[in-house]
Protein: Voltage-dependent ion-selective channel
Organism: Hesseltinella vesiculosa
Amino acid sequence: MSVPVAFNDIGKSAKDLLSKDYPVGGVKLEVKTTAPNGVTFKVNGQRDNKSGAIVGDLETKYANKANGIAFTENWTTANQINGKIELENNLAKGLKLELLASVLPASNEKGAKINATYKKPNVHTVATLDVFKTHFSVNSVVGQEGFLLGGDVSYNVLDGKISRYSAAAGYTTGEYAVAVHATNNLTNFAASYYHKVTGDLEASGKASWDSKNASNAVALEVGAKLKLDSSAFVKGKIANSGVLGVAYTQALRPGVKVNLGAAIDTTRLGENAHKIGLSFTLEN
């Protein structure tokens, strides 16, 4: 018996195909290196094409997999410092604890969260406590033979009431997956599918509806991914809003990858309403 995916990963295959690898609107550089002692370093930098603003962060992570301990430190160009401590299978088998803390020295703003993840055959549960905002949330997924059923609830401790709840269901096989989500207190509904047509071709689609939207319209999006060879693939998607997305990813050599993307508004072809972008990833 296997452990089901987390609640936020129900329908992930469809979501990734429609949203990942489209670096539109800016230029991004990501560098990942690993030291001989296992410490990993990651530098991210991104420039927004419209505003010209450049943001980035530096992350350092040390993981001792034998003892189930990991430390992560992150420092952003906004001078925000983030830290995370992970303990996995230390207190109990299948239990992972995370302590996340952040501080913004300029405004003395602080944040802290405690995450607890418990996994066992057919059950995957995640609980989160936001220490300063006094929000507590828990989501859980049960699975059996490819069928998934999950729920998510957030509780405001100070107000003493439930602030958010969602539900999701799905079915996954090796070749296809379908999922249905009801979010934002069961007012937003979405259905998605993913199909691995062949070893080189994948397809996906999503329909979403907001019951509080006066237009009562359904948003549709479909996309596909074609593997050209072992080092390159192309992706394309189109929404009923008229926005066409195209992307190309190429591994130039081991550890070097370039990703090009564009979002074209087909309803405004003669206007400056389109976005392009690219990203570089360097990894040793």
About this structure: The first helix runs from residue 12 to 19. The chain has one domain: 7-283. The radius of gyration is 21 Å. The domain at 7-283 is CATH 2.40.160.10 (Porin).
